[in-house]
Amino acid sequence: LTFEVTILGASAALPALGRFPTCQILNVNHRYYMIDCGEGAQIQAARFGIKLSRIHSIFISHLHGDHYLGLIGLLGTLSLQGRKRALYLYAPADLADILAAHRKSGGLYLSFELIFKATNTEAPEVLAEDDLLTIYTFPLRHRIPCAGFRFEEKRRGYTLRKDAPLQALSIQQKLALKRGEDIVLEGKTRAFTEFTEPLKKLRTYAYCSDTIFDISLLSELNNVDLLYHEATFTQEYLTRAQETMHTTALQAALLAKEAQVGKLLIGHYSSRYNNLEVLLAEAQGVFPPTALAIEGETFKV
Amino acid sequence: LTFEVTILGASAALPALGRFPTCQILNVNHRYYMIDCGEGAQIQAARFGIKLSRIHSIFISHLHGDHYLGLIGLLGTLSLQGRKRALYLYAPADLADILAAHRKSGGLYLSFELIFKATNTEAPEVLAEDDLLTIYTFPLRHRIPCAGFRFEEKRRGYTLRKDAPLQALSIQQKLALKRGEDIVLEGKTRAFTEFTEPLKKLRTYAYCSDTIFDISLLSELNNVDLLYHEATFTQEYLTRAQETMHTTALQAALLAKEAQVGKLLIGHYSSRYNNLEVLLAEAQGVFPPTALAIEGETFKV
């Protein structure tokens, strides 16, 4: 099952050096979950061959422009493409008013149903659930209401082992094994584990942008396979990070290490960094399995 | 005096082939007048080295996303840059509600005064005036209220001839000559024309996007030096142009020819055109001094 993240943008607010603001595509079995939607997201999607029609739902962390201003154009383009399928949108409540203003002017026409659910930016909760994922939200501490997201793979039943004696089994028996039920074969009860692969760990992806360094996030991030965490500044600008309620690369790495995540992805780079290696080096000094979120790159969860 | 247009984007609504939606910078004596502001305008400005701080006023033709969705991000960036100087914004009235919704969410903070004036999309009028330009607006016929703009250079007085005997003149006399007043020199009245250059033609730039082919525009476009006119389709798609209230390249050229403009610039290309030469060839067949609006290129008025 595909479970990977493609970066469409990873820059902070000021446009710098051609870098685009935050937007990611989480691809789970070729169903796309878009996370944040900075200005130019649809332009980046076209550039990297991302099919917009595959987008199932969109998650907006907060209403600073570099995280949502690509949304209105994207919705318009989906309509020009003739989308009929409903689209799910999760965002702070005020986004509903913003969308209403754009629709009232006649400039935004939607060809499909937009199902909006306001995120809880005060307390953790289960935000959404479908056949592939359970999606959790949790508050982030930023200058305006802000939420992070955790995408957890759902158990889809057991997988039959290719080397097991499956020829003798009926379809009903195979379905029972997939549900984890023992079966009776030639008068004998046989454990389902004889025929099935051991369960794999369910994969999880967590997304934290924008936020001040916040140790209370550990409970939300514990043991996730891939963590995206903003790292707007290097430790040299710690005071600036605190004032603007952002995180340094060192702090992001500390959090990743304490939470024992599999891998850390950093992004939301301040425009002052021409070369991002200084951010990467700072984080890797504390947590070696760290990578830079780079536009167009894909990371397996 | 510099009087030139730089193209930041010239694509129609659907993002295609990395082309950006409509945005232009009219540079008059290094004061910038931005015309339309499609998504990604600030990204393009950064790419082409356009200093955002030089923007004096912004003109939005209509509220389809490909003509205004870059505005909110641009205003945010100007604020992050610490702009203090007031900014003038001319647009259909509904844009005020849209801006209010973005500001209410806390996502759009302005560090400067934004002076908004609703355009008249029903009748021609003088929209704005400063020491360099008089700016006219006139209705365009599109699916929603829409306005075109004409930027006319203002007479700034006469220029003194370098080869005239200026050494003998007082500052007061020189100022009188610049105002076109005759002076008295050694008891004799001398015509100001002895000392000044002949008046140059005042330059004008007109902008028409989006609109159905509309012959009644001739009175607004008569004799302008440079005309930008949308040419979304080739004549092959005339029916589609009429349905969507757009213009073909042939029609734009006919209008330019009838209005006896100096030069025609076409743009707002449909995403179906990988190669824009077909649009250019169609227009040049009727009106040879036609050019394609291409991102990053600058056209003298």
Annotation keywords:
homodimer; 301 residues; alpha/beta; 7-stranded mixed beta sheet; 9 helices; 24% helix; globular
Number of strands of chain A: 16
Order of strands across the biggest sheet of chain A?
A: 6-5-4-3-2-1-16
As a percent range, the share of strand residues of chain A is 25-35%
Mean pLDDT of chain A comes to 95
Rg of chain A, nearest Å:
22 Å
The H-and-E topology of chain A, N to C, reads as EEEHEHHEHEEEEHEEEHEHHEHEE
Tell me the quaternary state.
homodimer
Query: Largest beta sheet of chain A, briefly?
Result: 7 strands, mixed
Helix share, percent of chain A: 10-25%
**Structural class designation of chain A:** alpha/beta
What does this structure look like?
2 copies of one chain form a homodimer. Chain A has 301 residues and is α/β, with parallel strands linked by helices. Chain A starts with a strand and ends with a strand. Helices cover 24% and strands 28% of the residues of chain A. Chain A is globular, with a radius of gyration of 22 Å. The relative contact order of chain A is 0.14. In chain A, a hairpin with a 5-residue loop joins strand 8 and strand 9. The mean pLDDT of chain A is 95. Chain A is built from 9 helices and 16 strands. In chain A, the strands form 3 sheets. In chain A, strands 6-5-4-3-2-1-16 form a 7-stranded mixed sheet. Chains A and B meet through helix 1, helix 2, helix 3 and helix 4 of A and helix 1, helix 2, helix 3 and helix 4 of B.
Please outline what is shown here.
Two copies of one chain form a homodimer. The first copy, chain A, has 301 residues and is of the alpha/beta class.
